[in-house]
Design a protein that fits this description.
The protein is mostly helical. It has one domain (about 1-215, about 225-525). Helices cover about 85% and strands about 0% of the residues. About 55% of the residues are buried.
Length: about 525
């Protein structure tokens, strides 16, 4: 049974990884476009701050309402063959969500001046005026981005992953065009326009397939007494509160950064985007692919298979993200220089961003684990425990941030370090509680896989750093080709060393990764046959 679940997860994760990889590459192109066209300036700080509340609403819907409530309940109906009843509940949920999003958009535009200080307490004068204007322009983007997330939830429940994974690609393309085409003409407003265009395109791409699934079942009704809706709201409320708490960590860090040197928000943002690259491609892809399978196991009472599946997913995530974190730490400057140092983005900006990346790197491992563990709680329809953990960690994050800023002299690195430490505490606490909740969670295999990955990553990190230093004397780092050779030469050496070490340590996770990476190719060939 483990092989069947693993193969199913591998195929789904392979598809998601393929498109998320394209999306993340475009995401880097987008971030480079922002850095190249606008630089690490106060204006760019304002733009990123303007997206805090829209990003919060997207996370609350997609990460909270959909992951914790809609997908588990909707999938449970489908697993029992009750598709019509599933769509009765889904119709009500969709109708309520659309009405709530419309009200949020209108109220957000009206009360933007009151909301602005929540995301940029250090902004005043022209910066504050620009913040208010950008927030008002981008609120409509929240509406369509959230609808895109809602469509994603429906399609994921049907084990359809391709179109939802294509949505972010369209979104990134809109922002890239906004920077390069409109940026030179209308400045930072071009990014806001591109964001709206990308969000509309992302939703429009998924809409036809959702309509096809819903054609015979959707009803324009609202019935708050439906059992499925009651379960969704019961599960959703704690999850939304929990995600609000986690987003508070980000907003607190951003507000503290707005009090530091100009450009600190940009440095933290770009470093965080780099961390999100492996997090998005692997951890989020695997958690997305594994979630419907976990929910189905719970619905059918297959708890032994449930334990094996989430242990399998957690081990694979550690296998990938531990070396990613080590690699980003030892190659922080070369990576940032290659990706962003151009146009208005200077060598000093590279150093500032690499500095933040160094402190964010340890948090990558914990954030990857949290992606899987949170889905485990949601599939068990337990959304209260993550909230309790979140309440504690948000306090820890704030206290650590203030203490590090005051006593360590780490500047914006203090904020990144506090976030990483908080993430580790969050992950370990969630695992310990889960073990008490379920009994055996295959902890021995999980810990052994993590220790082996850390051992192999240490050897990899030493080799990659050494090669990077050697190549510095042989390539011209003022040119893109020289930077490319330095980074990919170091990464290539590191990958070879890591895989060799995992082979010596007899790790079983590489086999899954190979299945995932080749899943889409095998699927294409079977369709052609």
């Amino acid at each position: 049974m483990e092989n069947q679940s693993s193969s199913r997860v591998a195929r789904a994760a392979g598809i998601v990884m393929f498109f998320v990889l394209l999306s993340r590459i475009l995401g880097f192109v987008r971030e480079r476009a922002i850095a190249e066209v606008f630089g690490r300036t106060g204006t760019t700080d304002v733009f990123f701050a303007a997206f805090s509340i829209p990003d919060l609403m997207y996370q609350l819907l997609v990460g909270g309402a959909l992951s914790s409530a809609f997908i588990p309940v909707f999938t449970q109906y489908l697993a029992k063959g009750e598709e019509e009843e599933a769509w009765r509940a889904a119709s009500i949920f969709i109708n309520i969500t659309v009405l709530a999003l419309t009200a949020f958009m209108v109220l957000g535009v009206i009360f933007t001046p009151s909301l602005a200080p929540l995301v940029g307490v250090g902004f005043s004068g022209e910066q504050r005026d620009l913040l208010i204007m950008l927030m008002r322009i981008t609120f409509p983007a929240v509406f369509f981005t959230a609808l895109s997330g809602l469509a994603m939830g429906v399609l994921h429940s049907y084990q359809k992953f391709t179109l939802p994974a294509l949505g972010p690609i369209i979104y990134n393309l809109g922002q890239i065009l906004g920077a390069y085409v409109l940026g030179p003409i209308i400045g930072i407003l071009g990014m806001a326009v591109g964001t709206i265009a990308g969000s509309v395109g992302s939703f429009s791409l998924q809409l036809p397939q959702v309509v096809q699934k819903a054609r015979n079942y959707y009803r324009p009704s609202i019935n708050l007494r439906h059992p499925g809706i009651k379960r969704m709201f019961r599960l959703m409320l704690p999850a939304v509160i929990g995600l609000s708490i986690s987003q508070v960590n980000i907003i607190v860090g951003q507000n503290l950064a707005s009090l530091l040197e100009t450009g600190s928000i940009v440095a933290l943002r770009l470093a965080n985007r780099l961390i999100n690259f492996p997090l998005g491609i692997f951890a989020m892809a695997i958690s997305t692919a594994i979630f419907p399978t976990l929910s189905s196991h719970v619905a059918r009472g297959e708890m032994d298979e449930f334990r094996r599946t989430f242990s399998f997913g957690l081990r694979v995530v550690f296998f990938i993200t531990i070396p990613s974190a080590v690699g980003m730490a030892v190659l922080s400057v070369p990576i940032v220089r290659l990706l962003f140092e151009s146009g208005e983005f200077t060598s000093a900006d590279t150093v500032a961003t690499a500095y933040a990346l160094l402190f964010y790197a340890p948090g990558l491992i914990a954030q990857a684990g949290i992606q899987i563990i949170t889905r485990i709680y949601y599939s068990l329809q337990d959304t209260v425990t993550p909230v309790k953990i979140g309440l504690v960690t948000v306090i820890i994050n704030f206290v650590l941030s203030v203490l590090f800023l005051r006593f360590t002299g780490l500047e914006h690195g203090a904020i990144a370090l506090a976030y990483s430490i908080t993430s580790v505490i969050n992950m370990l606490t969630a695992l310990l509680i889960l073990r008490r909740k379920l009994g055996a969670i295959d902890a021995r295999r999980i810990v052994l896989a993590a220790v082996k990955a850390l051992t192999a990553s240490a050897a990899m990190g030493i080799a990659a750093f050494y090669v990077s230093q050697v190549l510095t004397g042989y390539v011209d780092l003022s040119r893109s080709l020289g930077r490319l050779l330095q980074v990919f030469g170091s990464i290539g050496t590191g990958v070879i060393i890591y895989l060799a070490c995992t082979a010596v340590l007899r790790m079983e996770e590489p086999r899954f990764l190979w299945q995932a990476l080749t899943a889409r190719f095998r699927r294409s060939r079977s369709q052609e046959a």
